[in-house]
Amino acid sequence: MAFVSLKAWRARSAERAATAVQLKRDLIAALQLGDADALAVNEIACADPGCPDMETIVLVMRAGQPTRALRIRCPMEAVGPADIDALAAEDRAASSR
Description:
This protein is of the alpha+beta class. It has a single domain (6-95), classed as Double Stranded RNA Binding Domain (2-Layer Sandwich), CATH 3.30.160. Helix content is 42%, strand content 22%. Helix 1 crosses helix 2.
């Protein structure tokens, strides 16, 4: 087991928090969420075969609608504009049903 200093842990934690904040901003804009809507972004381990070790789960909570869980099959720091566009398209398709 490798030793991780408190300073390194705090730096990594701050970096991950900044990544999550920026991703949330990008997703809120892409999903066109309003002030009454909410969004949660989390990274979880994925046990599915063919799935990367970590994936990003986005919970879209629009006022007056059921919460919708969307998945991006990569860690938060690897999410790019194409992933965000695909997630927004998936959300639009699901809400039009």
